[in-house]
Amino acid sequence: MQHIEANGYSVFFNEKGYTSLNHFISQRNYSNIFIISDTNSNENCLPKFLSLLETDKNNEIIEIEPGETEKNITTCVEIWSILTELGADRKSLLINIGGGVITDIGGFIASTFKRGIDFINIPTTLLAMVDASIGGKNGVDLGNLKNQIGVINVPKMVIIDTDFLSTLPQNEMRSGLAEMLKHGLIFDEKYWNEFKDLNQKDFADFDQLIHRSVEIKNEIVMQDPTENGIRKALNFGHTLGHAIESYFLENESKKTLLHGEAIAIGMILESFLSYEKELISREEYQEIKYVLKEIYPFIEFDKNDIEQIIKLLSFDKKNEYGKILFVLLDKIGNIKINQQINNESIFKAFEDYHL
């Protein structure tokens, strides 16, 4: 697959990625190389990566536990301390190999350690491949609040090896698929239509779908790297989706939702809000709702759940001047940003979700 040129870096695919990585490292005088990974990627993905890494530079592996609960400033402090103890300096290279938690936190650690060192992302989950590792957003959660602390800073390159997807359980694949579905809804109706019958797709098709998903995100980010305008489109489904994810993360009586599972619900709810504002037709809304509910498990919400989720909306990153702002669809393949919605409409969206 053809590599993709982004703002200041390139996204390489499969075998070409390792060739490009080895050439890149050989052309730069790094003092040493550090690899951040979690226990899952360390077991399933790191052996292949290390077998293809060609360098005489010393490399150290820093392993953390998997999961969103590790994406916090405490983990950062621990890794900054380890880097210091191991003699990392401003000429060190950090390679993040893992899912979205690893690329998010690894990019943040690299961007802030000694005021910034070079880093490379090697995403190993579908979610990280099509979303988290692309676009330069790096950061951590603040308590249960998603991505409240962070920076925008691009890696030196991203390598997407779809062979790593064979190690993922189905629920993790579905989680990443939510972002691909989102890319179609906000940018490319033809791409959205590709997902209406996933049973007809084979793995070769899926490689191309991943490539197109990365293209879409990159095209949006290239227009608006710092999210002052059109890049907000990528938050479709995330205003309510992140609030749902945070609520389930902090509530011990609830089963924790994967990112994509929460975002899928958010996309259904925000599609209803788009329909209610007459931005999409009833038929478009019903199509979106049907496709997403066929893929993702139904989650029950009671009145208290919804009230608590609405309270969490006040912490959304897109909010401005105390106003909660949504990204809504304006027909499939287009969006409207900075849309205000009242609580009554949100309750109606949840009510329709239950039907």
From TrEMBL:
Q: Do the record's keywords include Lyase?
A: yes
**Protein name (record):** 3-dehydroquinate synthase
- Cofactors that this protein relies on: NAD(+); Co(2+)
Tell me which residues make up the 3-dehydroquinate synthase C-terminal domain: 176-319
Under PANTHER family, the record lists: 3-DEHYDROQUINATE SYNTHASE
Q: Does the keyword Nucleotide-binding apply?
A: yes
Keywords from UniProt, A to Z, are: Cobalt, Lyase, Metal-binding, NAD, Nucleotide-binding, Zinc
Tell me, what's a Pfam family for it? Answer: DHQ_synthase
- The species this protein was found in: Flavobacterium solisilvae
Provide the function of this protein.
Answer: Catalyzes the conversion of 3-deoxy-D-arabino-heptulosonate 7-phosphate (DAHP) to dehydroquinate (DHQ).
Gene3D superfamilies documented for this protein: 3.40.50.1970, Dehydroquinate synthase-like - alpha domain (1.20.1090.10)
- Give start and end of each 3-dehydroquinate synthase N-terminal domain: 62-174
Q: What class of enzyme is it?
A: lyase
Catalytic activity, EC: 4.2.3.4
What molecular function does GO assign, one term? 3-dehydroquinate synthase activity
